[in-house]
Amino acid sequence: MTDTVIQIDHVTKSYATGMPVLRDVSLTVSKGEVVVVCGPSGSGKSTLIKCVNALEPFQQGRIVVDGEDLAGRNVNLPRLRARVGMVFQHFELFPHMRVLDNLCLAQIKVLGRSRDEAESRAEALLERVGLRDFAAKHPGQLSGGQQQRVAIARALAMDPVVMLFDEATSALDPEMVSEVLDVMVELARSGMTMMVVTHEMGFARKVAHRVVFMDRGEIAEDADRRTFFEAPRSERARQFLSKILTY
Questions:
Q1: CA distance 28 to 12
Q2: 5-25, pLDDT tens digit by residue?
Q3: Which of 8, 13, 77, 146 would bridge 142 by S-S if both were Cys, CB 3.0 to 4.6 A apart?
């Protein structure tokens, strides 16, 4: 039995213009591994993570997540997405529902949990992200950082096999970034399998097992954390780090 959770083989994706946004991308993420995907804007990193959750189609190659081939005839996408937690740049919470109900809805509808079971799980996760006292509030009553922590708790409520983060802190005010990163660091250290698209190199330095650097739709570097930060092999990665770590 393999411990590979995500297998990406030679994936190429183009939009209507015909210009490839992903070019022959291959990557694996193993159980318990934290893989940070970084690179300049337009490098294809967000597109890649959306392909992993079948939110974006791709033309060539193969993606297997938790044993499910995304291109397979019998793939059950709703069931797959229930096992793959996704945290977006913009929270995506239901504004008309209380925080607690945001966490309970998919548990009840998709996993078939009872209301009591779903609420118990939701309350435990809100405690974990430091928001137990906010269960009865609506998202609009929370700060951006608090809403993102609710979004993380909502994803965790589905007991995912892997968590995907797509620029989870980039829409936040600077003072709110750390409260979200603290939750992500705790999650990583608990052994959760994670694929994280981010510019937060401090997070990558702290918990990433591997750093994947993308440029122009290709993987320019795939290295362990120490190698990437201390001795990157590609000139493009060296340029990127010299700029991003200067400030």
A1: 16
A2: 999 999 999 987 778 899 999
A3: 146
